[in-house]
Amino acid sequence: MKKIILACGVAAAAVSLSACATVTRGTSQKYSIDTTPTAASVSLSTGQTCVSPCNLKLKRKTGFVVKANKDGYQEASAVVDSRIRGGGVAGGAGNIIAGGLIGIAVDASSGAMNDLTPNPLHLTLKPTEAPATAEVAPVAAPVETVAVPAPAADATVPAGEAPAAESAPAEAPTPGAE
């Protein structure tokens, strides 16, 4: 009976240690997203949403796409990758010592050996430009003043008299008016 209990204990230890990265790191990680400007609506291709800045707990196994939107700004997006990183390699090394191929298979399939990168993610949203068809308020045209030259001093006409027309024929002198 002692041998059976001992064998079961060894088997349980082997199974529990077989996935070292899964045990030590877990299959999820904290992930931070912030935007400039803040308070942008953030959506992930995995279905999660938040308002920036935000912190999420996400599965390490697969990458995803992040999109950020805010009124008056163009949409910004980024691709987040799931890659094997230092902590995952260390967990995998523990599998070689204690867990063997089963542990490596469990860690690889669960994503425990991976990290989501970049983390934290920063997205900068660019302001949208005013559409070309937008109505613009009319601007008053400047008033143009025209300078009128003053009449010459010798061309002064006494009040009440009309100036003589240049094209009028000259009158013949009347006899005896001299």
Descriptive account of the structure:
Helix 1 crosses helix 3. Helices cover 26% and strands 25% of the residues. It has 178 residues and is α+β, with helices and mostly antiparallel strands. The chain is rod-shaped, with a radius of gyration of 45 Å. The longest helix is centred in the middle third of the chain and has 25 residues. It has a five-stranded antiparallel sheet with strand order 3-2-5-6-7. A three-stranded mixed sheet has the order 4-1-8, with no helix packed on it. About 3% of the residues have low confidence. A hairpin with a 4-residue loop joins strand 2 and strand 3. It has three helices and eight strands, in the order H-H-E-E-E-E-E-E-H-E-E. It starts with a helix and ends in a 54-residue tail after the last strand.
Overall number of strands:
8
Task: Please estimate the helix content.
Answer: 25-40%
Question: What does the main sheet amount to?
Answer: 5 strands, antiparallel
The average pLDDT score comes to: 74
- Write down the overall geometry: rod-shaped
Could you tell me the radius of gyration in angstroms? Answer: 45 Å
* Percentage beta strand: 25-35%
Count the DSSP helices.
Answer: 3
- Which strands sit side by side, in order, in the main sheet? 3-2-5-6-7
Spell out the helices and strands N to C: HHEEEEEEHEE
**Oligomeric description of these chains:** single chain
Q: Which secondary-structure class do the elements indicate?
A: alpha+beta
Could you name the ranges where pLDDT drops below 50 across 5 or more consecutive residues? Answer: 14-19
Question: End-to-end span in angstroms?
Answer: 166 Å
